[in-house]
Specification:
Radius of gyration: 24 Å
Number of domains: 2
Mean pLDDT: 84
Shape: elongated
Pfam families: DDE_Tnp_ISL3 (PF01610)
Structural class: alpha/beta
Helix content: 25-40%
Strand content: 25-35%
InterPro entries: Transpos_ISL3, Transposase_DDE
Number of strands: 7
Number of helices: 4
Largest sheet: 5 strands, mixed
Protein name: Transposase
Length: about 140
């Protein structure tokens, strides 16, 4: 089992491809390119590959399919979690109202500034209002 991924030797200019053993986390090999034909030729030098983890790159998917059509391709851990997070966020945003009201007593000034800082990073509007008979109106 191996993972292939790209890396930058000079950001936005020069990239390479690295192959890592999934079990030992050690680098197996590297090439100074991520071009399709270079990756295909490189992958063919490893005839025993049966399971290859990769990012979402279509270029890598095609190169793997061409070099090892029998190999199983899986998404790497980072991209699995990224896709899961993105899709969960979308589902939650559809499920919950865009405005969320949280009942609260009057907050002391130091707590309000902490809350304002948190609110800046939320993907929805957060409104704090004083509870009326245990219920709030948004």
């Amino acid at each position: 089992m191996v993972c292939i991924d790209d890396f930058a030797t000079k950001k936005r200019e020069t990239y390479g491809t690295v192959m890592v053993d999934i079990d030992t986390h050690r680098i197996i090999d590297m090439i100074p390119s991520r071009e399709h034909q270079d990756v295909v030729a490189w992958l063919k030098t490893f005839p025993n590959l049966t399971l290859i983890s990769r990012d979402g790159s279509i270029s890598y998917a095609k190169a793997i399919k061409e070099a090892h059509p029998q190999a199983t391709q899986v998404s790497d851990r980072f991209h699995l979690l990224q896709n899961l997070t993105t899709n969960c966020k979308k589902a939650l945003m559809k499920y919950f109202k865009s405005k969320v009201a949280i009942p609260a007593e009057e907050l002391p000034p130091e707590k309000r500034s902490e809350l304002d800082e948190i609110k800046e990073h939320l993907p929805f509007d957060l409104k704090i209002e004083k509870a009326t008979n245990g219920l709030t109106k948004a």
